[in-house]
Amino acid sequence: MEVEFLGGAREVGRSAVLVDDALLLDYGLLTADPPQYPVRDPEPDAVVVSHGHLDHVGAVPALLKGDRRPAIHWTPPTADLARTLARDTLKLHGNSPLCPFSAEHVARLGEVEHRHGYGEPFVVSAGGTDYEVTLFNAGHIPGSAHVLIDDSVGRSPTGDRTQSDNGDTRLLYTGDFHTDDQRLVAGTTARPDADAVICEATYADVTHEDRRAVEDRWAERVKTTIWEGGTVVAPAFAIGRTQELMLVAEANGLTPYVDGMGVEVTRLVRQYPEFLRDPEALRRAKGAARFVTGRDGQRERIARDNELIVTTSGMLAGGPVHSYLPEIRGSPTNAVTLTGYQVEGTPGRELQDHGRLAINGTVRPVSARVDSYDFSAHADRGGLESFLSDYEDARVLVNHGDRCEAFAGDLRADGYAASAPAIGDRVEL
C-alpha cells in the first residue's frame, strides 16, 4: 500500500491522502485568504470522508467535475454537513475562480454517495483492488470517524470475498479525534488493529485544562460581563463548537443568541440522535437559545443589549461575527471569548496574538476584553500518546498539525517507527 499526502501534512487544513493512486481519504480546504486546496487534482475511483469539517470535506464536490463519478463514503451526519458547507462556500465564492465547484457538482453528490454507520465493514473497489473499510466513532463531532482500510480482501471469480495477493496492510486514518467526552459527543474508545496509523497532531504540544474547569471559567466570564453591563461575543465553529457552547450555556442557566450557520447545523445534527452523547440535553439547549434571523438591524440591537452571542465564524474569517465585533470592540466592558483553534494567518489568530482586527479593510485595535478558552474537540498530547500506546508496533505517520516533525521525533525517541511526511510525499507501507 502506498499513500500520498496532497494536503494536511505539517499543516492544519486541506486534508487529503491518496491511497494507491485510487482511494482518497478526505478532500478539504484551508481557510485562508484566498482559500487553499490540495496541491493537485486527483481522479480517485472512491473517496472516504472522515468527518464534516471544512478542512476535511470542503472540496469534495470538485471531485465530480466532467464525467468523474467516484463513489463517496461517509456517515449520515457527514453527508448532510458536507452539503451545508458546500452551499455556504458557493454563497461566499460561487462566482469566483476561488471556488472549484458549482451547485451542479453539489447536486451530483446524491448520485454517488454511500452512507455507513460505525462498526459496519463495507467493501470499496478502487484501482483494481477491493478494500474492506470500517468507520469507528472518533469522538470529534457528530458523525466523525476513524477510517480503517484493509487491502488484504479481494474477490474470487464468483464474486465471493477471499484473501488477496495484492497486499496485507491495515491502515488506520484517525481523522480528527478526541479521547475525552464532550457534552455533544463521547470520546473515542475504538482501537482497531492496524499495521500503520496516519495520526492527527493538532494539539501535540498542549495539555488541555480540565474541561469542567474551562466551562466554569467561561460561564463566569459571560455572567460577569453581562452583570457589568457588557456584551459577550463567542465566535464558534458552526459544526460542533456552536452546539457544545449551547449545551454549556444551558447547563449554567444562560440563554444565548445563536447566529450563523450554527443555527442550521443544530437542527441538522438533532436528526441523528444515535450520533449524539445526550440528545435530550441538546433538545433542552436548543429550547433555551434564541436564534437570530439578521433582519432589520437585529444584530446591531442585540450587540447593545448586554447579551451572550454565539456566532460564526470561529476564526473571524467571515459570517455574522463581522456584524457584532464593530459594535462591541471599542469598550473594555465587552468581551470576546475565543473558543477554538485559531489557524496562523486568520483574523482570529491576529486578534488572539495582537489584539487587533481587520474590519471592512481597516485594521483597528480591539479594546474589548479578549480571552481564549480551550474547548478543543481534539486530543491533547496525553490523549494522543494514550491512543498511540495501542500501536507501538505500527508505523506512525503524523499529520494535521503545526509541529508534526517535533511530535514524530518525540515518538521515535519513545521507540515508535514514526515520521512526519511533507506535502507531496509518497510513503510505501
From TrEMBL:
Gene3D superfamilies: 3.40.50.10890, Ribonuclease Z/Hydroxyacylglutathione hydrolase-like. It holds the Pfam family RMMBL. InterPro entries: Beta_Casp (IPR022712), MBL (IPR050698), Metallo-B-lactamas (IPR001279), RibonucZ/Hydroxyglut_hydro (IPR036866), RMMBL (IPR011108). Residues 242-351 form the Beta-Casp domain. One of its GO terms (molecular function) is RNA endonuclease activity. The keyword Cytoplasm does not apply. CDD domains: TTHA0252-CPSF-like_MBL-fold. It comes from the Archaea. This is Beta-lactamase. It comes from Halorubrum aidingense JCM 13560. Residues 13-237 form the Metallo-beta-lactamase domain. Keywords: Hydrolase.
